[in-house]
Write a structure and sequence with these properties.
Layout: E1 5-16, E2 19-30, E3 34-38, H1 45-52, E4 60-65, E5 68-69, H2 75-81, E6 83-85, H3 98-110, H4 121-133, H5 149-160, E7 167-171, H6 179-194, E8 198-202, H7 206-212, E9 215-220, E10 223-228, H8 237-244
Parallel strand pairs: 3-8, 3-9, 6-7, 7-8
Antiparallel strand pairs: 1-2, 1-4, 4-5, 9-10
Helix pairs in contact: 3-4, 3-5
Bound molecules: adenosine-5'-triphosphate.
Keywords: ATP-binding, Nucleotide-binding
Organism: Lutimaribacter degradans
Protein name: ATP-binding cassette domain-containing protein
């Protein structure tokens, strides 16, 4: 039966000894949604991402992407199916240039179809066109170690979207950016979203979460404790207690450390 959901998790669980890092999560994500995942440190957000993106095997439960069960697939297989993920540390290959990072990302996306890293002129032209689309063509020859934090984040998105993914998972994408840089990054994500890509991201910065997401999923102790419109979080008693005691959530609130 065809499903409206690009991603579904059923009874997803990951245990480490007695600890239930992800504790029987059910989650459905519609194609085109922008879902922000929040929650305190140790809530299970990264583990949930690791399970969905093939970094960590599930202890039990099932994950379906685009109608296909993906349990047991690794990150590269998922990338080729259209599920891309970025990580919290986004330096790429810092000694390589921006262009070289893009070429590596392109090559990884087709590695099983065309073994090895043989680069052709059209690979370079394609990489330059992608960089141009993200406003990075002018710095193509600079080592990544020398570009700004915002440019590194932009490159992170550019390399992750190189295979035209259907779903993009971002792990704390605006960490380390200043508020004006966050505003620029929000515009970038809006553009990616406008191209039809489903976006799921973990974020501690509430302003980013409430601006970008049309749905917030909040985790605590391995489970989902809120799933709804970001604007409704402020009225949810569990969320208010978790974030700020009894004080209402404000736009600039960050999670407690
Ligand atoms: N490889 C591992 N071995 C043992 N315990 C782990 C492992 N990975 C995660 N955990 C534990 O699982 C729980 C959930 O961790 P996770 O990193 O998913 O939380 P998080 O919500 O992403 O936290 P943060 O916001 O700090 O990144 C934590 O108690 C963590 O210590």
């Amino acid at each position: 039966m065809a499903s409206d959901f690009i991603l579904s998790a059923r009874g997803l669980r990951r245990t480490y000894g007695a600890l239930h890092a992800v504790d029987g999560v059910d989650l459905d994500i519609r194609a085109g949604e922008a879902v922000g995942v929040g929650g305190p440190n140790g809530a299970g957000k990264t583990t949930l991402f690791d399970l969905i993106s093939g970094v960590t095997p599930a202890s039990s439960g099932e994950i379906t992407f685009d109608g296909r069960v993906i349990n047991g697939m690794n990150s590269q297989q998922l990338f080729q199916l259209g599920l891309a993920r970025t990580f919290q540390v986004v330096d790429g290959f810092p000694r390589l240039s921006v262009l070289e990072n893009m070429l590596v990302a392109q090559a990884l996306g087709v590695a099983t179809a065309r073994r090895g890293l043989i680069l052709r002129r059209r690979d370079r032209e394609r990489a330059m066109a992608s960089l141009d689309g993200y406003g990075l063509a002018d710095i193509a020859m600079q080592p990544v170690a020398e570009i700004s934090a915002l440019q590194r984040k932009t490159l992170m998105v550019a390399t992750a979207t190189v295979g035209n993914p259907r779903m993009l998972m971002l792990d704390e994408p605006v960490g380390g950016l200043t508020p004006p840089e966050i505003d620029e990054f929000i515009q970038l994500i809006d553009r990616v979203r406008a191209s039809g890509v489903t976006i799921v991201f973990i974020e501690h910065v509430m302003r980013f979460l409430t601006t970008v997401a049309d749905r917030a999923v909040i985790m605590d102790q391995g489970g989902l404790i809120f799933d709804g419109a970001p604007g409704d979080m402020i009225r949810d008693e569990t969320i208010r207690k978790l974030y700020l005691g009894e004080t209402p959530v404000t736009e600039d609130a960050h999670e407690p450390a």
